[in-house]
Class I fructose-bisphosphate aldolase (Actinopolymorpha cephalotaxi), 1485 residues
Amino acid sequence: MASRPQLRQLGLSTGKKARLHRILFQHGVGNGTAMFLPYDQGLEHGPRDFFANPAAGDPAYIVKLALRGGFNGIAVQVGLAEKFYWDYAGEVPLVLKLNGRTEIPAADNPLSPLNADVADAVRLGADAVGYTMYVGSPAQEADFAQFRQVREDAHRYGLPLIVWAYPRGSAVDAKGGKDSFYAVDYAARTATELGADIVKVNFPHPELRKGARAEYDADISPAQAIDAVVRSAARTYVLVSGGEKAGDAAMLDKARMAMDAGALGLIFGRNVWQRPWDEALALVDQLKVILAKYPAP
Amino acid sequence: MASRPQLRQLGLSTGKKARLHRILFQHGVGNGTAMFLPYDQGLEHGPRDFFANPAAGDPAYIVKLALRGGFNGIAVQVGLAEKFYWDYAGEVPLVLKLNGRTEIPAADNPLSPLNADVADAVRLGADAVGYTMYVGSPAQEADFAQFRQVREDAHRYGLPLIVWAYPRGSAVDAKGGKDSFYAVDYAARTATELGADIVKVNFPHPELRKGARAEYDADISPAQAIDAVVRSAARTYVLVSGGEKAGDAAMLDKARMAMDAGALGLIFGRNVWQRPWDEALALVDQLKVILAKYPAP
Amino acid sequence: MASRPQLRQLGLSTGKKARLHRILFQHGVGNGTAMFLPYDQGLEHGPRDFFANPAAGDPAYIVKLALRGGFNGIAVQVGLAEKFYWDYAGEVPLVLKLNGRTEIPAADNPLSPLNADVADAVRLGADAVGYTMYVGSPAQEADFAQFRQVREDAHRYGLPLIVWAYPRGSAVDAKGGKDSFYAVDYAARTATELGADIVKVNFPHPELRKGARAEYDADISPAQAIDAVVRSAARTYVLVSGGEKAGDAAMLDKARMAMDAGALGLIFGRNVWQRPWDEALALVDQLKVILAKYPAP
Amino acid sequence: MASRPQLRQLGLSTGKKARLHRILFQHGVGNGTAMFLPYDQGLEHGPRDFFANPAAGDPAYIVKLALRGGFNGIAVQVGLAEKFYWDYAGEVPLVLKLNGRTEIPAADNPLSPLNADVADAVRLGADAVGYTMYVGSPAQEADFAQFRQVREDAHRYGLPLIVWAYPRGSAVDAKGGKDSFYAVDYAARTATELGADIVKVNFPHPELRKGARAEYDADISPAQAIDAVVRSAARTYVLVSGGEKAGDAAMLDKARMAMDAGALGLIFGRNVWQRPWDEALALVDQLKVILAKYPAP
Amino acid sequence: MASRPQLRQLGLSTGKKARLHRILFQHGVGNGTAMFLPYDQGLEHGPRDFFANPAAGDPAYIVKLALRGGFNGIAVQVGLAEKFYWDYAGEVPLVLKLNGRTEIPAADNPLSPLNADVADAVRLGADAVGYTMYVGSPAQEADFAQFRQVREDAHRYGLPLIVWAYPRGSAVDAKGGKDSFYAVDYAARTATELGADIVKVNFPHPELRKGARAEYDADISPAQAIDAVVRSAARTYVLVSGGEKAGDAAMLDKARMAMDAGALGLIFGRNVWQRPWDEALALVDQLKVILAKYPAP
C-alpha cells in the first residue's frame, strides 16, 4: 500500500501549491482529501444524461448541489462557467475543463479539442484546470502537443493541472479495453511522465485481460490493481472516477479501496446528480465519512 | 415552460451587455425580443436563391428591407458588409457573419471556414458576430478550435456571439437527421457549453427519430420539443430559424411555440426576402405582433 | 442591363480608392475602364505557352508590350516582378499575383498556394494584388482561410484586391463545368461576398448545363448570362478574361457584351502575347476602341 | 579506428562547451567519457518494464541509483523531472528528454511528439536535452521540422543536444531492419548533418542485411561496423545504447568495441535498473573500469 | 544563344549584390562564373556515397578540397557547417543548404523539410542559402509555402537564394521523367517565377519524351535544350549539376554546352569527391579552363 505524498513533496511552484492547499484544506472534508463534481456530460453525451433527473439539466442546480454537498470543486466547460459560476463565485472552487467533444462523430482517432485556455481559467477565478488525454489514441501526437501547451500555461499561471487520463482506441480495445488494469495503469503513468499534478482514472478491472500483454496476464485483485495504479502515478495525486451510475455499495467499496491505495479522492458526477437531490446528498455524506478517515500524512 | 432569462442574469461583460441591450431594446419591437434578417445565402447556396425574387440579389435591396421591416439586425458576410452597410451604417444593427462556405464541394466532413474575424466586425461597427458550428461533423476538432478563437476575440472586444448551431454529418443522419429533436437539442447544449451568447436552431421535429438513441425515442409534441431545447440552452438565448420558404400559418405557429418556450426571437431569411417586398413586410408585421406579446421579464 | 457603379459607391478605404483611381483614370483608356495583361502562364502552364511566340518567353518583352499597348496593368508573380518590373517601375501599374501553381501534379483538390504576400506588393510599388480562388474545390476551407489573410492584409495596406474566381473540382464538372453559367455566376457571387474589390471571370457559356441544378437549366443568351453574372457580383467590378487564344471577332464580341452588361473591362493574356508584336497591338487597339465607349458613369 | 575528437574541435558555442565540460569532466569517470541512465520507459513501454524490479517504478529510486552509480546524467521526461529531480538537483546532471510517445497506437508513421521544450530544460537546471528522431519514418518531414525548432532553441540557450537516432518504418524493415549496419550508419549520419551534438545509436548488427542495398551487402565484423558508424557521425559524439536487458559479458563486449571505435560512452537503462540494486551497481562498476581506459585525447 | 545577364541587371538588393559579387568575382575563376561543391549526399543518400572514396566521408576532407580546388562555394547542411566550416571560415564561401531529407521513406509526395533557416546562415557567415524545390510534386502547396518563407527571409537578410529545382513525382515520370527537357525547362521557369536568384538544374535530355506533351515532342539537340532552359530561367542564373559520377569527357561536354547557352556555371559533387584527391583536382582544373572562357559580359 502506497501512502499519499504530502503537498510539499511534489516539487510544486508557489502558485500551484497555494491553490491546491485552498482546494484540499479549505473545502470539502478539509483534511487534504478531495471530492470533485464533474459536469461536462451535457457536452460529452448530450442532454440525454439529464433525462433521469431533469432538474440536473440546469447548471444552476448543479452549482448549488456542489455547494450544499461540500465538494472540493466543480468541473465545467467555459460556457457554463461564464454563465453560472458568477452566482457563487468563490464559494466553491472552479475547475475549468479546458477540452471536450460531443460523442456524435465516430471516435476512431479520438482527440478532445481545447475549448478554453488557461488564461480563461485565470480570468474566471478558477483554482485548477482539467484536460482529457486519450492515452493510446492514434491521435496521440496531436494530443501530446496540445497538452504540452496546456502544461506550460498552467505552469506559467500557477494553476494545478488535473488530467482525465482515458485509455482509448482500437489498440486499447485489443488488449483488454479501456477499463483493464493494463490500460488504466499505463494511462496513469503517462499522465505523470508528461506533467499532470492530479490524474483522474477509472477504477481498474483486472479481470479484463483478453489480449493483454503477457506481463499483464495475471490474477490480481481490484485492491492490488488500484494500488499498482497509484504507485505508477508516482507523486501525481490520483482521483478515482465514478463512471456510469451504479449502486451505493459498489461506489463506497471503490472509494475505500482507492483511499487505502493512497488515492487523493473521488470525482463522481452522474452517480451524484442523476439521483434526486436528497439521495445525492445522502451518498455524498457517506463518501465524506470515508474520506475523513484518510487525512493528509 | 421556461422563462426567458434577463440580460443581467447571463454573466455578461459590460461590452456584450451594452451591445445586446442596444440590439434588443432600441431596435425591432424594442421589448427585449429579436427578429434578425440573415443574408448569406448568396454564398451558402449561390445566386439561385434569388431567382424567386431577383430584386433580392441586390444587397442594397436587403439592407433597405431590414430597415423598413424594423429588424433587430441583418447578418451578412464581410464583403457585403464592406460594400453595402455603409449606406445605412448605424441605422440597423449589423451582425457580421464570420464564417461560411459554398455548397459546391461535397460536405462529408463539413467545416465552415472563417472569412472574417471579430476585429473586422469591430472595424465595421457591427453589434454582434455570427458563427456556424456544424455540431456532429467529423471535423468537430477543427470546428471547436476555430470557434474557441472566435469566442476569445468576442470576449476581448465585448461583442455578443451568435452561434448558428447546425447538426451535420452521417452520424446525425443515422439518428434522425439534422432537424430531429435529438440533433437540435444536442446542438443547442453544445453551443451553450462552449460559450455562445445566443444560439440559432432549426425548429425541432420530434417525429424524426428513426435510428435515434433510446432516450430520444419517445412521443412528444413540437411544443414540448422546443421547450426542452430552450432549457438545454440554459442562459443562452435561443433564436428559431425559418429554414426554407414555407406558408404563413406554419411560420406564425413556429414563432408562437418558440416564444412560449422562452425563446428570444426569430431569424427568418428566405421566408422573408423570397417574397415580394409588400408580402415580405406583411409577414414581418404579423411576426412583430407575436413578439410584442413576449416582453422581457 | 446593370450599370457600372462609381468608385465612390463601393465603400472603399482611402488607399484602395487612391490606387484604383490611378489604375482606372491615369492609365489605359483613362475613362474608368480597364484592360490588364496577365503573365503568370510560365508558372501555371510552363514554357510551352511561349512556343507560339518565343519572344514572349522573355518577361522584358512583355513589360514593354504592356507599356506600348497602354494597358492598365500587368499581373506577374513575385520573381518576375523583382527581376523585370524595375526597368519600367511606375510607368505601368503592377498587379502582384500573390498565388499560383504549376499544372504538373493532379489537381483533384486544387488550391493555389501563396508565393508572395501583400507586403511584397507594397515593397515593389504594386498598385493592386491578385489572388486565384478555386471556387468549389474540395480544398475550399484552406482556400478561404488563405484568402482571408490576403483580404485583411490588402485592407491594412490599402491595396485593391483582384480575385481570379475560377470554378474547379468534380462537383463543378458534374453540373455543367467550369465555364457554365451556373459555375461562373456562383464564383462571381462568392468573390463579392468574401471581399473582392474586382473579380476576374471567364465569359459564361449558358449552353453548358448538363447536370446543372434545375434553377440553372434554362435557355438564356450569352448576353443575359454575363448580365446576370455582373449583377451577382454586386458592387464588385468585373473583368472578363480572354482564356485560350481565339479569333479576333470572338474576342471583340465578348468584350462588347461584357461592357454592355456593366463590366469594368478585360484581362487578356495569351490572346495578346501569343500573337506577333504588331498583331497583338492591333488587337489591343480594337479593344480600346470598345472600352472608350463605356466611360465611368 | 577513429579517435574521439576533443571538445574544442567541435565548433561549440560557449554555453554548450561549458555544460558538456561539466557533464564529461565533473561527473562519472571524469575523464571525458560518459555513461547516462535513461528512464523514460514508463512512457515509452508503460509500467510493465518495472515488473522485473518493482522498486524501479519509483523515480526516486532511479535518481538515487544514478547518484550512487556515478552516472554522468539521468534522462527523464518533464513530469518526472519536475516531481523528482528537485530532491537531488545539481548532484547529478539532468538530461531533459523533450519528446516521447506511448507504444500503444500503431507506429506505421512514427513521430515522437514534444512534451517539453528547451526552455523547460533551462528552467529545471538541466545540462542537456534529448530528442528521439525516427530516421526513415514516413513522418520524416514533421520530425525534421520539429527537430529544427529544438536545435535552434538548444543553440539559443547553449544546451547540448543529444539525439536518440532510431531507424524506423517499413522502408527500414525492408533493408535489414532497425539494428542493421545500414540503418544505424545512416541514422548516425543524419543526426550529425542535422545538428546533433551527441548521437545515441543502437549497436549495429552487420549480419542483418536481408534486402540491404548492394553497398551494404558485405561481410564485416561488429567492430568494423561500429567503427564505420562513429566515422559517419563525424565530430558528433556517439553513445551506444544497451537496448533490452542482456547478459553482462555481452554488455561489456559492446562497451569495449564502442570505446575502441572512438565512441564517447554508453547509455544503459533497462540493463541497469531492471537488475536488483546491488547487481546494477556491480555492472556499472565494470563499465566504469572500461571507460577509465579511454580518457579524452 | 542567350547571353548571361550582368549582376546589375537582376534587380538585386544591395546585400544580395554584395554577396553575389564576392562569390563570383573574389573566388573560383574570379570572372563572374561559378563552380560549387555540394556535400549534402550523406543526408540525401546516406554514407554509401562515400564508399567509393572513404576519405570523403569526413567533412574536413571536403572543406579542404573546396579550398584547394578553388571552388566558389561549398554547400552543406547546418550540422556540418557548425562543426566543420569553423576551421576555414571565410576562406571559401559557404552556401547553407536549408532543407534536405533522407532517401529512406517512399517519396510519392516528396517535400524537402527545412533543417535550418536563413538566420542560421547569417549567424554562420554564409554567403548564400540553398533550397530544394520538388517541382511537380503532389506536395507542391506545402513546398511553395515553405519556399515563400525562405524567399522572404533571404530578402530581409540580403542573402542570395539558390534553388535546386528538381522535377519529381508520378506526373513528371509520365511525361518523360525528371531529366526530360519538358521537366527541366518547367522547373527552371518555376524557380524564376517564384523568386530564385540562381537555379540549379540537371542537364536536360531531349530524347526523354515518352508521354510528353505535344509541344515538347520534338527533335532538338542537347545544346538547343540547355539553351531553351537558360532562356526560360530569364534573369535567374543557371547552374548545371553533375548528377551521378560519369566520365570526364561527358562532364566537360556538359560544361561547355551549358556555358555556351549562358549558364553561370557548375555544381559538381559526386563527380568530384568520389574520385581520389588528385583526380578530383585534375578534373576541377579542366573545368576551370572552360569557365575561364566565359567571363561576365
